[in-house]
């Protein structure tokens, strides 16, 4: 996938060229085909509802079994649309995906998310299905990223969790390697007839350019794949999904550099950028001081807290679950720290944690508001960011605002 | 500070992985409780080590003088679950694994006031136990409340009969004990059915009491469940009855609400999320829920970003140019303060820490966010009044004096107003 990868803060002439290229890139909305697969009852639809439809964990009990494939288009950040294929996991469906619908399902896949139920009785059978899926995937979309979620970890005793997870990870990696090896062996005859036409609906057009040539080597999936232990009852789910979407977000490097210069300019300890509906962390920046925060899981925790809070608000105000629930939040903890969460661009919220001090706080709020235009590209394929944030402009802005705050 | 201290008792990733030497048969809930107890113990030790001042001189060492909550009821009616959920923050779904209580479980609740919570095993009848008679004065001698828990999803006739006997006993010699009946486990019952049960139980008790010639016994009924906020609300009402001079507190809050155009204000005990006072506007479960969840959000944020020590260099840099001031002088308020604007109708919610245990949370009227500075000043005055109030009621030095803070709120202490 040829993303817009170059940092924009480069030299003048090079930057101009990249900017033009970026403009072209940004014009089209990016669509990504995301396959959500796993055995029936492993919790695929539950996690999807929690992340994208703001269900509470206990409400997912109401969900029934998914029949065939449940297609949904999730608009994420204006310029990225996820084509989420929630594939029902009953065996009849699985066989169908692997035989009749094989090309339809497995071509042009951007990401495969495979869900294992840790409590499953028949691990061997689960793994056999998994191996089939992986071989089909490698055959049709070998550039696809693979994420494996070992789900329902809350059912395992906390003390043994890590152990159980590690063992399962080793097992899945071995199986993946086996699946890839098999495809490699069969490769001559499999890739003989030209690669299947991109028949998939939606995402096909945008993805066509990035299709690998039939001769490109099959990547070492067992190395590049990522595994997560998840549970819908805690924040682990947000951690997994944040890393899944992290790779899909276009212009990530631009976001990161701009966030960093914003952070330095306003003297923040940490900045998190959330997507509006799912409250997944899109990007983050942490100051060297903030790095010493002992809570390594704080990002997914923030997602979890804010999402739960959103739910409380919707109960209180009687507005729909997916509606916007709050616009501004600030918290000053005496001489300890201060923070604020505020609506940033149309599709994002920003959380800033910073040192205490009224003047510093107020000028940071003004500066964040002033920085909004630089992030407007998050909302849609309208304009390309020009040159990143002119850091000099930001700093002068800070000086002005800081002065105002002190006065 | 309430939020900082409290955060230690919450789930801590580092402690979860610590190997715990507990026998295999212990359930997860028990483990959790062990952990909470252990953390509380460590925290107390830590406090002692750091020389942190233990709660003011009011902490009279002997158990006398502390209001007491007695939890009684049939076995398996949910007494221990209630006390674990409310006082030990056990997640409600983990109470399934609690084992039955075999002896009286005594807890003390360290907050703005000190409470004792006694959890009685259901199989023991305190009044009718010839083999091992209880010392009635030791149990009921202290002022407090008897909380009788009735399982609404079970046959409650026997529970009601025992409750009647208990009330009669108490009415004879310990009239100062409030009797609070928790009609428990009402989650999952329809609203009509809940009210039917409540009516039925009320009538049965009143009939029996008037047959025995007891009128106007102080019996109150609450519909509760540990799976929502109702249990906290019920406890709030129980505890409010035990607070001396509650009227003054409420008057202060009512005054604040009127001056600042608040819809509803609560004074929360941060540790238990019980509210100890609110203004005089009608009770409203929804606003209690959102305020209580707001306290939760603040606790979580505090834990993640406020519970660890920053380096001295960080401080030095922040106190250097261009600020040239000590960090403490750069902040407007040394206590935690927070505000949030809800997207619908721009209704703000505000929170202000009062002391180590209490926080003031209020829901404001639409569009009053611009007036925040003024409101903050008013809240400051009220918080000062509250602090004085608690100093006076705690030390009981001048039991009849009207707390100074109240006059400040009424008088010229209030700056401008929200109108």
TrEMBL record, chain A:
* Signal sequence annotation: none
Q: Does the keyword Nucleotide-binding apply?
A: yes
Q: Name one GO biological process term.
A: negative regulation of autophagy
**Does the record bear Lipid metabolism in its keywords?**
no
> Which Pfam families did the record assign?
Gtr1_RagA
Please name the InterPro entries in this protein's record: Gtr1_RagA (IPR006762), P-loop_NTPase (IPR027417), RagA/B (IPR039397)
Localization annotation: Cytoplasm
Q: Which UniProt keywords apply?
A: Cytoplasm, GTP-binding, Nucleotide-binding
Region listing for Disordered, in residue ranges: 185-211
> Which GO terms fall under molecular function for this chain's record?
GTP binding; GTPase activity
Recorded hits in CDD domains, A to Z, give:
RagA_like
GO CC annotations on file: fungal-type vacuole membrane; Gtr1-Gtr2 GTPase complex; nucleus
Coiled-coil segments: none
What binding partners and quaternary form does the record give?
A: Component of the GSE complex.
Q: What does this protein do?
A: GTPase involved in activation of the TORC1 signaling pathway, which promotes growth and represses autophagy in nutrient-rich conditions.
Stated family:
Belongs to the GTR/RAG GTP-binding protein family.
**By what name is this protein known?**
GTP-binding protein
Q: Which organism is it from?
A: Pseudoneurospora amorphoporcata
From TrEMBL, chain B:
Cellular component GO terms, alphabetically?
endomembrane system; fungal-type vacuole membrane; Gtr1-Gtr2 GTPase complex; nucleus
- MF terms (GO), sorted A to Z: GTP binding; GTPase activity
The record's subcellular locations are: Endomembrane system
A Pfam family (short name) is: Gtr1_RagA
Under the heading InterPro entries, the entry gives: Gtr1_RagA (IPR006762), P-loop_NTPase (IPR027417), RagC/D (IPR039400)
> Annotated region Disordered: where?
1-22
SUPFAM superfamilies (alphabetical): P-loop containing nucleoside triphosphate hydrolases (SSF52540)
Keywords assigned by UniProt? GTP-binding, Hydrolase, Membrane, Nucleotide-binding
Annotated GO biological process:
cellular response to starvation; negative regulation of autophagy; positive regulation of TORC1 signaling
Which reactions appear under catalytic activity for this entry?
A: GTP + H2O = GDP + phosphate + H(+)
UniProt keyword Disulfide bond present: no
Principal location class: membrane
Taking the record's annotation, the residue ranges forming a coiled coil are none
Q: What does the UniProt function comment say about this protein?
A: GTPase involved in activation of the TORC1 signaling pathway, which promotes growth and represses autophagy in nutrient-rich conditions.
Q: Which family does it belong to?
A: Belongs to the GTR/RAG GTP-binding protein family.
Quaternary structure and interacting proteins, as annotated = Component of the GSE complex.
Q: What is this protein called?
A: GTP-binding protein
In its UniProt entry, the species of origin is given as: Pseudoneurospora amorphoporcata
């Amino acid at each position: 996938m040829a993303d817009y990868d170059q940092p924009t803060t480069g030299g003048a002439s090079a930057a101009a060229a990249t900017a033009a290229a970026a403009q072209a890139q940004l014009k089209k909305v990016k669509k990504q085909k995301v396959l959500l697969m796993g055995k029936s009852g492993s919790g695929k639809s539950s996690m999807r509802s929690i992340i994208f439809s703001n269900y509470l964990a206990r409400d997912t009990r109401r969900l029934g079994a998914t029949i065939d494939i449940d297609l949904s288009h999730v608009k994420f950040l204006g310029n990225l649309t996820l084509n989420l294929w929630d594939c029902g996991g009953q065996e009849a469906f699985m066989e169908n995906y692997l035989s009749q619908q094989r090309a339809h399902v497995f071509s042009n896949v951007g990401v495969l998310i495979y869900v294992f139920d840790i409590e499953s009785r028949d691990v061997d059978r689960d793994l056999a299905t998994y191996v089939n899926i992986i071989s089909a995937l490698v055959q049709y979309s070998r550039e696809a990223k693979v994420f494996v979620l070992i789900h329902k970890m809350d059912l395992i005793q906390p003390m043994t969790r890590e152990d159980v997870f590690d063992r399962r990870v080793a097992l899945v990696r071995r199986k993946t390697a086996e699946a890839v090896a098999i495809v490699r062996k069969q490769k001559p005859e499999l890739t003989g007839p030209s690669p299947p036409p991109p028949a998939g609906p939606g995402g096909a057009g945008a993805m066509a350019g990035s299709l690998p040539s039939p001769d490109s080597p099959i990547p070492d999936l067992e190395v590049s794949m990522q595994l997560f232990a998840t549970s819908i009852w805690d924040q682990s789910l947000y951690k997994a999904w944040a890393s899944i979407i992290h790779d899909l977000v276009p212009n990530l490097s631009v976001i990161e550099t701009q966030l960093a210069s914003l952070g330095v300019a306003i003297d923040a300890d940490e900045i998190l950028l959330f997507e509006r509906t799912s409250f997944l962390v899109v990007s983050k920046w942490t100051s060297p001081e903030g790095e010493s925060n002992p809570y390594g899981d704080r990002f997914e925790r923030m997602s979890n807290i804010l999402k739960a809070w959103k739910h409380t608000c919707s109960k209180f105000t009687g507005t729909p679950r997916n509606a916007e629930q709050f616009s501004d939040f600030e918290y000053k903890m005496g001489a300890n720290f201060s923070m604020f969460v505020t609506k940033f661009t149309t599709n994002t919220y920003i959380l800033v944690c910073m040192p205490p001090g009224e003047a510093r706080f107020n000028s940071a709020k003004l500066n964040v508001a002033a920085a909004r235009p630089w992030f407007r590209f998050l909302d849609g394929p309208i304009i390309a960011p020009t040159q990143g944030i002119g850091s000099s402009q930001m700093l002068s802005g800070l000086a002005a605002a800081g002065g105002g705050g002190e006065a | 500070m309430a939020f900082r201290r409290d955060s230690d008792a919450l789930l801590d990733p580092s402690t979860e992985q610590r190997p715990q030497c507990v026998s295999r048969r212990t359930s997860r809930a028990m483990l959790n409780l062990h952990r909470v107890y252990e953390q509380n113990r460590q925290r107390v030790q830590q406090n002692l080590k750091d020389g942190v001042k233990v709660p003011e001189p009011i902490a009279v060492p002997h158990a006398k003088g502390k209001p007491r909550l007695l939890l009684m009821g049939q076995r398996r009616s949910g007494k221990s679950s209630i006390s674990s959920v409310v006082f030990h923050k056990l997640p409600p779904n983990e109470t399934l694994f609690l084992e039955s209580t075999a002896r009286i479980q005594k807890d003390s609740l360290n907050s703005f006031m000190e409470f004792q919570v006694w959890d009685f095993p259901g199989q023991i009848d305190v009044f009718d136990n010839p083999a091992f008679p209880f010392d009635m004065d030791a149990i009921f001698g202290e002022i407090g409340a008897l909380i009788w828990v009735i399982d609404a999803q079970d046959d409650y006739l026997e529970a009601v009969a025992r409750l009647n006997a208990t009330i009669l006993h108490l009415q004879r010699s310990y009239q100062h004990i409030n009797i609070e009946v928790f009609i428990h486990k009402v989650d999952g019952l329809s609203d009509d059915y809940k009210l039917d049960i409540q009516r039925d139980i009320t009538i049965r008790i009143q009939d029996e009491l008037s047959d025995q010639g007891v009128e106007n016994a102080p019996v109150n009924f609450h519909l509760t469940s540990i799976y929502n906020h109702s249990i906290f609300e019920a406890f709030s009402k129980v505890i409010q009855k035990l607070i001396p001079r509650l009227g003054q507190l409420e008057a202060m809050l009512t005054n604040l609400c009127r001056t600042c155009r608040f819809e509803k204000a609560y004074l929360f005990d941060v540790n238990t999320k019980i509210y100890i006072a609110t203004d005089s506007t009608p009770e409203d479960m929804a606003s209690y829920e959102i305020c209580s969840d707001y306290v939760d959000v603040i606790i979580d944020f505090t834990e993640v970003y406020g519970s660890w020590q920053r380096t001295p260099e960080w401080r030095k840099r922040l106190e250097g140019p261009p600020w040239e001031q000590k960090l403490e002088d750069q902040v407007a308020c040394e206590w935690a303060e927070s505000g949030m604007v809800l997207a619908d109708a721009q209704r703000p919610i505000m929170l202000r820490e009062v002391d180590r245990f209490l926080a003031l949370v209020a829901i404001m009227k639409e569009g009053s966010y611009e007036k925040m500075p003024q409101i903050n000043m008013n809240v400051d005055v009220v918080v000062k009044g509250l602090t004085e109030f608690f100093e006076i009621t705690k030390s009981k030095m001048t039991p009849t004096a009207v707390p100074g803070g109240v006059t400040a709120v009424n008088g010229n202490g209030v700056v401008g107003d929200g109108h």
